[in-house]
Design brief:
This protein has 94 residues and is an alpha+beta fold. Helix content is 41%, strand content 23%. The longest helix has 27 residues. The structure holds zinc ion (ZN).
């Protein structure tokens, strides 16, 4: 019984560690504004921002942990690099 508890505890700790680390990786990404300021040559207009790694404009934005997560990150569909982060206030309220 005690061993079972220990395993359960380990799983919980692992779960929270992994959540923490994805939050940390996300927090290290530049914000969309930072990205545009740092790489103005990659910004064609508000909707077309190209990847700094492969120059593709095929990017995909998604919630960090779930569809409705207010912490969004954008990844390049061509090379898989994470490009920038964004916070969406309207999702945070829900
Ligand atoms: Zn790319």
């Amino acid at each position: 019984m005690f061993q079972l508890l220990l395993i359960l505890l380990g799983a919980v700790v692992l779960f929270f560690n992994r959540r923490d680390s994805s939050q940390r990786v996300w927090a290290r990404l530049p914000t969309l504004n930072d990205y545009q300021t740092r790489y103005p040559e990659k910004t064609e207009d508000a909707n077309t921002i190209r990847c700094i790694h492969c120059d593709s404009d095929q990017t995909w934005e998604y919630g960090l942990e779930s569809l409705m997560d207010h912490r969004r990150e954008c990844v390049c569909l061509a090379c898989g690099h994470r490009l920038w982060r964004k916070e969406q206030e309207s999702l945070a309220i829900q």
